[in-house]
Amino acid sequence: MGCGLFGRDSETDERAVRPGEPKPSPSGLYTAYAEDGAPQNTVKTLVDVIRDKDGNEVYRDDAAYSTRHGVLFTWLSTEPNQLWILSSDVGTFHVAPDNDGTWTKQHATNVPPEIKDLRGY
Q1: Burial 56-80 (b: 16+ CB within 10 A, else e)
Q2: What is the mean pLDDT of the chain?
Q3: Per its UniProt entry, which superkingdom is the organism in (predicted)?
């Protein structure tokens, strides 16, 4: 669950944020969660959520990602606080805080090699 078409190798398994398996950011300041979203045409969906060390929600995606097509949430190891969303259905995105500390999602136009390896580009 949560990996879909992205394979189940040990690196992906270790890195993947799945329901009940949150993962801390490289900085250790935040934790990413995969929470159940509203079903879409009876298909299970996942939503990425980021919380700070006190458990306060700092980001909740406005999109729910279909598990039918494959979705993976993972932190980029070379950035302290950058979560990547890899969806076979709608594309690849990253979420990070801006200079004001507001978390924003951007469509990825330049995908780092470690993410490409997970995505299968």
Answers
A1: eebbebeebbbbbebbbbbbbeeee
A2: 89
A3: Bacteria
